[in-house]
Amino acid sequence: MQEYIVYMGAKPAGDFSASAIHTNMLEQVFGSGRASSSLVRSYKRSFNGFVAKLTEDEMQQMKGAHGRVVSVFPSEKKQLHTTRSWDFVGFPRQVKRTSFESDIIIGVLDGGIWPESDSFDDKGFGPPPRKWKGTCQGFSNFTCNNWGLVNMASLMGFGLGTARGGVPSARIAVYKICWSDGCDDADILAAFDDAIADGVDIISYSLGNPPSRDYFKDTAAIGAFHAMKNGILTSTSAGNDGPRLVSVVNVAPWSLSVAASTIDRKFLTEVQLGISINAFEPNGMYPLIYGGDARILEEVLEGTHPGAVGTVIVDGLRLPKDSSNIYPLPASRLSAGDGKRIAYYISSTSNPTASILKSIEVKDTLAPYVPSFSSRGPNNITHDLLKPDLTAPGVHILAAWSPISPISQMSGDNRVAQYNILSGTSMACPHATGAAAYIKSFHPTWSPAAIKSALMTTATPMSARKNPEAEFAYGAGNIDPVRAVHPGLVYDADEIDFVNFLCGEGYSIQTLRKVTGDHSVCSKATNGAVWDLNYPSFALSIPYKESIARTFKRSVTNVGLPVSTYKATVIGAPKGLKINVKPNILSFTSIGQKLSFVLKVEGRIVKDMVSASLVWDDGLHKVRSPIIVYAVQ
After folding, report:
1. Which of 286, 293, 456, 457 would disulfide-bridge 476, Cβ 3.0–4.6 Å?
2. DSSP string, 234-301
3. What is the band of 269 on the pLDDT scale with cuts at 50, 70, 90?
4. What's the rounded Cα separation, in Å, for the pair 527 and 588?
């Protein structure tokens, strides 16, 4: 018997007894005897559904016996995608801010926080804004907000500086959904249910599983859809399964998918030229042995082998120069080439020894680039929708840390700290969330799609020379929060646009009416092909060597100068492709005015993947969207 999520779409209008309705549905499947004990929880604040303990046969009956059910799927476990970063993306502490900033509430869905940390000191804050409908649970003398400025924060001297949030006056509401063994789908959906009803403005969601193939069997996609219906943008992590292609997760078009990028800081271990973060002082030379012969590598890494005083790890996959790990003993992580040189030294020396020096902080002149761990596209559900959307700093990030947890997260390590240095798309996602909240503080009435568009079209372009997977690695580019406040134009979209998109994806009228709670209609007139979804990027998959003739329809809304004229330019059109924009000039006479255009791609591609970009320019704003065409077998 297993826990299953029974998702029923929008909640009914008016008051309704969720538990009574859900128990009744269970009774119809296996009688009244087990119904109440089978029901685990009900979702009722922002959408409709429940979790129940069912056998495989009962799950199939539940799926087919009720016209009210959208989907039934197992509640599985997901994993978290786990100072200098804001300055690196051009977002200094002294940037312009608004008084509305303190009314912004960010809902954080992850493993919880250590409320006593200085990062969550609420000194100087008044009560939460009136719109807040949630409560604080489990702690005394702690309010759900974030002060966000901590001077002289570091991990044992590394990353020393001021730890701050992107929107330091904003409040945070933390929904703990993860424990030591992972994050249950049932808890994830409950957190979305509560966060939406509590009145958060932005949701930050830094976890995921292998990509789903159905938007409505994915708890993040379901929760983010209902958040979008309520005017809330969900910022999600793209995943840590790179550099493998088709590994990106959280790919729903109504949420923001954030890949990780590096900042201009990295940690090196001198002499051995490896990467790790060592807070140990050097104290002599020690014998050097080959771990493959010693059969104790796992014990050494965990710090439990009594003879180990340090370890050198050789990475045989990809040069590990883009992220650092913390180990419970002095360690250095090397490339395969350096590892071969050490192996030769060991085999050719009668008494090989080594000394691992304390790590040093150095400038990474190649930054920003996408680290190898960050998941790559293309999108496995909707192939012609580019994911990830953009990148944000996610490598070597100084973050608040529980002082009762070892900094290496390994047994045998007794070192604790108030802050830790972490890498992962779970570090990138909060940066994008903060940038979205910053935009929201200037434009409180903007839709989730408008905020997302502003972030994407103002992102700093990244180099395909540093990132072979190009847009599949970095999407539109690296966030630039200051520019995103004034994007000039936005590609806006609302619920009906996404419903039309889902019609085009093959979802039935009956399913979509349950999801939306209204009288949605799929017809030839409303079936929206993915190429016509008003998205801030353009993607096209084609059979290998097939000729192309594809038209994309888009509209842009003027949020810049009331009277302005934008001219379209296609930058970097690849060999063999002809890309035209009609009309190529858009003249606006008022703020909020919306104008349409089409982008047509014709020809053949001579490589597996090619890209270009469309830029709308009025002399003050450059509104940039990536264009990608790739071959499929």
Report:
1. 456
2. EEEE--S-TTSTT------TTSEEEEEE--S-EEEBTTTTBB----SPP---EE---HHHHT-HHHHH
3. low
4. 29
Q: What is the pLDDT of residue 160?
A: 43
Cα–Cα dist 601/578, whole Å = 6
**Residue 517 burial (C-beta neighbours within 10 Å; 0-12, 13-18, 19+):** middle
CB 604 within 8 A of CB 516: no
CA neighbor of 43 nearest in space, from 232, 234, 223:
223
CA atoms within 13 A on the CB side of 35: 16
CB proximity list for 565: less than 8 A, separation 6 or greater = 585, 586, 587, 588, 618
Say whether 164 sits in a helix, a strand or coil: strand
Distance CA(604)–CA(581), nearest Å, equals 18
HEC states along 485-522?
CCCCEECCCCHHHHHHHHHHCCCCHHHHHHHHCCCCCC
DSSP helix/strand/coil, 601: strand
Q: What are phi and psi of 29, to 5 degrees?
A: -90, -50
C-beta separation of 376 from 246 below 8 A: yes
Confidence band (pLDDT; 50, 70, 90) for 633? confident
Rounded to whole angstroms, the Cα distance separating 117 from 120 reads 6
**DSSP codes of every residue in 15-40:** ---HHHHHHHHHHHHH-HHHHHHHEE
The domains of the chain, with CATH numbers, are 2-75 (3.30.70.80), 79-264+368-484 (3.40.50.200), 284-358 (no CATH), 489-493+534-632 (2.60.40.2310)
- pTM: predicted TM-score of the whole model, two decimal places: 0.82
Q: CA-CA distance, 412 to 406, in Å (whole number)?
A: 9
CB 5 within 8 A of CB 214: no
Q: Which helix (H) or strand (E) holds 473?
A: helix 471-474
- Evaluate whether 65 touches 244 at the Cβ level (below 8 Å): no
- Is 289 within 8 Å of 421 (Cβ atoms)? no
- Burial classification of residue 104, based on how many CB atoms lie within 10 Å of its CB (0-12 exposed, 13-18 middle, 19 or more buried): buried
Instruction: Give the pLDDT confidence of 479-515 residue by residue, as tens digits.
Output: 999 999 999 999 999 999 999 999 999 999 999 999 9
Helix, strand and coil content of the chain, in percent to the nearest 5, comes to 25, 30, 50
Q: What is the CA radius of gyration of the chain?
A: 26
In the 8-state DSSP scheme, what is residue 460? B
Phi, psi of 158 (to 5 degrees): -85, 140
